[in-house]
Amino acid sequence: MDETDFDALCEGAPPQEAKRLRKMLAEWCQGDENSFPVQLALLSRAQWRAAASIPRLVAESRKQMEHTFTEHRRQTDNLFDEFSSVVEDRIKMLEQIIAAHADSTKKAEGEMRIVLTHAEGVAEHIHAELERGAVEWKKARGDFDTERQKLEQTRKELETRYEWRDWACLLAIAAAMVMLGMLIGMHIRR
After folding, report:
1. CB 25 within 8 A of CB 38
2. Exposed (0-12), middle (13-18) or buried (19+): which is 58, by Cβ within 10 Å?
3. Residues 123-181: tens digit of each pLDDT
4. What is the pLDDT of residues 107-121, one digit of tens each?
5. Separation between Cα atoms, residue 190 and residue 179, nearest integer Å
6. The pTM is what?
7. In whole angstroms, what is the distance from residue 161 CA to residue 157 CA?
8. Model confidence over 56-96: pLDDT tens digits?
9. For the chain, which residues make up each domain, given as ranges?
10. Backbone angles phi, psi at 95, to 5 degrees
């Protein structure tokens, strides 16, 4: 015999209770189809069918929920794996950037040290040149002062010479005029 919804409803019930339920169902189903017992039997049969389908629906729902849960879990695992791979890629990229930055910093530091060493050498050379220049300047200033004093002395001597020469010229001119005047006077007297 095929299993019915009633059999599914009676599943797990003791055999005597299932027998009583079958007998009651058979009594209710006899008679006028509009009578209360028949209507009640139809209603009960519909309820039993609905009640009998509940375990099957619950089992299907459970399977569907398990399938959905499994799918969600798989998707979550995939998302987590993708997220992990993205994070690992980003971490690798950051490590590469940090390594490149560290290399650049080391190169820049090395170049700066070379430039600073060179700058220190140039600064020492400039300092030595400035000191030598200061010594030369003091020597040149001393030479200039010495030459200025010599020039001043020479100028004074030259001025003194010009005074004597000027006086001598004046005296010579005055003497020449006096002589010329005397000659003119003699010439006029004659």
Report:
1. no
2. exposed
3. 999 999 999 999 999 999 999 999 989 999 988 887 777 777 777 888 888 999 999 88
4. 999 999 998 999 999
5. 16
6. 0.36
7. 6
8. 888 888 899 999 999 999 999 999 999 999 999 999 999 99
9. 5-87
10. -65, -40
Residues 6+ apart with CB under 8 A from 3: none
Structure tokens given for 155: 């100028």
Task: Please return the burial class of 41, using the count of CB atoms within 10 Å of its CB with bins 0-12, 13-18 and 19+.
Answer: buried
Q: How far apart are CA 28 and CA 33, in angstroms?
A: 10
Of 93, 8, 123, 17, nearest to 57 by C-alpha is 8
Please answer whether residues 5 and 52 qualify as being in contact, where contact means their C-beta atoms are separated by less than 8 angstroms.
yes
Distance from C-alpha of 54 to C-alpha of 8, rounded to nearest angstrom: 10
Indicate the DSSP class of residue 166. Answer: H
Q: Which two tokens stand for residue 87?
A: 């994070």
Q: Provide the 10 A C-beta neighbour count for residue 25.
A: 14
Query: What's the chain's length in residues?
Result: 190
Q: Which residue has the tokens 């430039």?
A: 115
Query: Of the candidates 51, 24, 16, 23, which has an alpha carbon nearest to the alpha carbon of residue 40?
Result: 24
Alpha carbons within 13 angstroms on the beta-carbon side of residue 105 total 6
- For 90-113, b where at least 16 C-beta lie within 10 A, e where not — what string? eeeeeeeeeeeeeeeeeeeeeeee
